[in-house]
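User: I'm putting together notes for a lab meeting next week and I want to include a structural view of one of the chains we've been expressing. I don't have a solved structure, so I'd like a prediction I can at least talk through. The sequence is below, exactly as it appears in our construct file.
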Amino acid sequence: MTRTQRLNSRLALLAATFLTAAPLHSAAQQVFRDVTTPAGIHFTHNNGAFGKKWLPETMGPGCAFIDYDNDGYPDILLMNGEDWPGHAHAGATTPKLFHNNRNGTFTDVTRQAGLSVPMFGLGAAIGDYDNDGFDDIFITALGQSHLFHNNGNGTFTEVTKLAGVWGPNEFSTSAAWLDYDRDGKLDLVIANYVRWSEQTDLYCTLDGARKSYCTPESYKGTSVRLWHNLGGGKFEDATQKAGLGDPTSKSLGIAILDYNADGWPDILIANDTQPNKLYLNKKDGTFEERGVPSGIAFSEDGVARAGMGADAADYDRSGHPSVIISNFANQMVSLYHNEGNGLFVDEAPQSEVGRATLVTLGFGCFFFDYDNDGWPDIFVADGHIENQIERVQKRVSYAEPSHLFRNLGGGKFQEVTAQMGQAFAAPRVARGAAYADIDNDGFLDVLVTTNAGPAFLFHNEGGTNHSLRLKLVGTKSNRDGIGAVVRVTSGSEKQWKMLRSGSSYLSQSELVLTFGLGTLTRADAVEIQWPSGQMDKLSNIAAGETVTVQEGKGVIANRPYAKSAK
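Assistant: Thanks for the context. Below is the predicted structure for the 566-residue chain, given as C-alpha cells.
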C-alpha cells in the first residue's frame, strides 16, 4: 500500500469515526487547581548545576504515583539529583516520598520509609516484582540505579545487589515494568542515554561566547537494558539474548504497547537524535526491531528527531494503540496513528497537536481522559534545556506553558490549556509528568516536576461526567495485572485500555484504570484479558466507584467515590 493509499484509507476511517462517534461530554467548565502548597508538597529539585553546564543537569527530574501502603490513595514519589563531588551547594538531597493522608494533604515520609539514599536520580518505575501484594520501586540514575523492595509495613529495603541488578553504571533515564514472556513475573526494561562522564564532558556553545549544554549528537550512544525476572527476587541481564542490544540508541522515553494485537507486550523507545525503536515481541523471549518499516523511526520527512517522552493509547477507538512522542523545540510532537496493518502515520502535521507544539520543547507526555467523556486527551509538559535560548532563538523560551489537548472525537484535538486556569497554564521548565486520582473523586489529577525547581500538583476540579475505575489483582498473571487489556461497553460506546508501567518521561502514573463514561451511569459489560490468557467478564457495573477485580474470581471489592464526586 502506498503512502497516498494509506492516507486516503485513514481519511475514510476518520470520516466514518466522526459520523458514528462523538465524545459523551458535558460543556461544563473544568479547571485544574494548583494544590501543591496546601497539600504539603515541599520540594525543590537539585540538578547539581554549578556553572559548568554538564549534560545530566538538564534531564531530571521524574515523578511517580505509588500506593505503597495499599490504602487506595496514591502517594507521591519525586526524583532528585545531588551536588557534584567537590561542588557542594545544596546539601544532601535524596528522592522524596510523600504519603497521601486521604484528606487532601501529604506528609514527607522519606526517611522513615528508608528512601533517604543519595543519588543522582532521574526516573522511576513502579511494580510488584515479587508478587507479594506491595508495589516496589526502581529508580534510574546517573551511575548506579537502585531497586527498593516494599516490605509491606511502610518501609523499603534497597535490594539492588541482592536482586542481581547491581553493576551497570549508566546514564539511565526512563524505565518500565512488563511481563514480556508472560510467565507471571514482572521484568524490567531501562532506557539509557549516552556515554558521558565528568572527564569526557565537551565544550559546546550557542552564541560563540558562552558554554551551552551539548546535544546528544556530541556523544556516543548506548543500549537499553532488559532485566529478566527469574523469581525468588533475582534478575538476569537478558538484553543481548532478547535482541535489544543496540549501542547506537540514545534513549529517553519508554512506552509498552501491543501494537499488533497478538496479546504480547511490545516496546517503544523514544530516542534523542537517533531513530525511534519499536521492538516486536516474538513470543519466544526475543524481540525484532521494526522502527523503520513501521514508520515510527523518523519524522514525515525522514529525519530522526529528538524524542523525549512517549505514551500509547487508542485515541480514536480504531481498536489499535497509537503513539505520542514529545520532541525538541522546532520539531513538534509526534502523533503516530496505528493503521492496524503494522504501519503508523504521523497525524501531527495535520493536527492542532502538531501546530501548537512546533516551537515548544516537550518532555513528559501522556494520554488521559481528564473530562471523563470516554475519549483520551493529551497532556505535554514543556520546558527548554538552555536558560539563554532566547538570545539566539527569539520564538523559543526557557520556561514554557504545558499543553492540554481535548479529544473532540474523529481524530481531532483542541488545545484547552488556557481554559484550565492561570496556574495550570503558567510557563515552567517542566520535565516529568504523571496522573492519578489523588482524592477518590473519579477525576484524574496531574503531577508535574521542574528542573532545578518545585514540583506542582494540580487537582482536577471535575465536572458532571461519570467514570468507573478498575484496580486489578493478578493471580496467575503478575499481581499488578500489568499488561492486562480491559474493554468497557456502555450502551453503544466501546473503549479499551491496557494497564502499563512506564510512559511519559522519567515518570509513572497510577496503576489503576479510569474509564470516562460521559453522561452514562454504568458499564453494561467489562471484559478483562489477563496476560495469563484468563478472561474475566463482568456486567452491569455502576459508575462512581473504584472496583477491584481479582483474576479468575471477579469483583472482590468496590469503593464509592468521595461524596463530592459527580
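A couple of points you could mention at the meeting. The first strand starts at residue 32 and ends at 34. Residues 1-22 have pLDDT under 50 and may be disordered.

User: Perfect, that's what I needed.
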